[in-house]
Amino acid sequence: MRGITERQAWTLRWIDGYIRSAGFPPTVREIARALGGVSSNAGKDVLAVLAGKGYVQVTPNVARGIRILRMP
User: Fold this and answer.
1) Band of pLDDT at residue 1, cut at 50, 70 and 90
2) I want to staple 42 with a disulfide (CB 3.0 to 4.6 A). Which of 15, 25, 38, 52 is the partner?
3) 47-62, pLDDT tens digit by residue?
4) What is the pTM of this model?
């Protein structure tokens, strides 16, 4: 597994905090807003990278289908 960038690590920590606070994962739009209001595609992109590096699992076609597998 490759390391992750600071932005990816921040996003992963934010998702973890969201899950701990709310009890369920955020939506892609909520992730995009947390990244500074960028497009939903940017939220999808960062999730895809984190999934590819083995940090999260994203269940396709499932709302809030994000599961953290490990933290950096």
Assistant:
1) very low
2) 38
3) 999 999 999 999 998 8
4) 0.89
CA angle 49-53-51, nearest 5°?
A: 55
Question: CA 6, 57, 29 angle in degrees (round to 5)?
Answer: 65
What secondary structure does DSSP assign to 8-70, as a single string?
A: HHHHHHHHHHHHHHHSSPPPHHHHHHHTTS--HHHHHHHHHHHHHTTSEEE-TT-TT-EEE--
* Averaged pLDDT for residues 36-57: 90
Name 57's bridge partners: 67
For residue 50 the two structure tokens come to: 């984190």
